[in-house]
Amino acid sequence: MRFAGTYHPIPYLLLRIADFLPSVENYNGLWMGYDRKIYTNYENNPLQNALKIKAQEKREQQITSEWTSQLTFFEENNVEKQNSQLSIEDENKLHILQLYFPSPVDGLMDVISIHFPENIFLKSMNLTFQGVSSKEKHILSSFLTSILNAEHQRVTQERKLLLQMEKSTQQHTQKIQTLKDHLNTTEELYSSAVRTIVNDSKSNLEKELNKSFHFDQDVIAKLAKERLTINEIEIIVKDAIFLAYNLNVSAPVIQIENSHITWDSSTTARKEEISVSDSRKQKAKYLLDRYEKAAEIVVQKGLSINGKNIAAQLDPPVTPPAITDAVKKNQTKIGYFLEQYPSRWSKIRKYIRPIASINETGSQMSSAS
After folding, report:
1. pLDDT tens digits along 160-203
2. Which of 23, 108, 295, 321 could form a disulfide bond with 59, CB atoms 3.0-4.6 angstroms apart?
3. Is residue 161 part of a domain?
4. How far apart are CA 309 and CA 293, in angstroms?
5. How far apart are CA 66 and CA 117, in angstroms?
6. Pick from 221, 214, 286, 217: which is nearest to 251 by CA?
7. Taking the complete model, does pTM exceed 0.90, yes or no?
């Protein structure tokens, strides 16, 4: 079903006149289209030259309706040009009703011309047009003006609504397209970065194996999609190259395809867990190194080696309870390093009480085993 708002109001009203006046078969329209050209329904093309000028003169009239004898919009109306009072015979010749509607394009008037037949059905009587009085013509024109103006306004308002919806849809589509463009740009930049990492990673292996390795774009896209670290990409590239090399020993140029990628996304999760564990271990080792350095400064200054003086020599300085708290939070990792490196951190093993306690416990467990 086609919405009324997709029509220009005048062609739409011409389609509806048959519903309101089934006995009328001849009706015409004159209007300015949304392309700002002037049309009539009995001309195939927009009006040009003299007809266009006459049409504009017609559209400049500021009336709502008139009864006329004009068969077309452009011929002279000899009856109406007379200055004297219309006779009954003249009145009977005015059997064409022209209705004027404000144009939604330029504010002038568009026109519909309705040619009433010789016989017309009014007041439950079948009358000849000569029997229709001027009062009845006025009632008929008022009636049709009211109905068709309401339809005209409905078409105009519906078109405005459809244009608003179209604009909103276009804006929404444009936003989606903009986001897609940004995403594509980001993906291209990331893929380019991955390609650079891959090329750097394979160059040494190409020299070592005396082969050329070419990575398909699908492989680059796959690696980019995984959001891997540089180290992970380097590992994947190395594994893929050796796998492809083992399967294509005699080929001078070896193609790396997705089938050569053995990386599992779950591997990333496991590596992240290991990375967190390693980070905690490094923190424990960092604390031990930091406290031992502070203890050496205490010795250089000729001070007593204790938790208070060591805490004061840290950069930045801390309180002795802060050292105790940090050691307790990392005691498992500290115990691990104290056991793995028995010759290191000799001063704090003895003079920082919480570390000495861990060291003693670890020594006892080693002796018992």
Report:
1. 999 999 999 999 999 999 888 888 887 788 888 888 989 998 99
2. 108
3. yes
4. 12
5. 17
6. 214
7. no
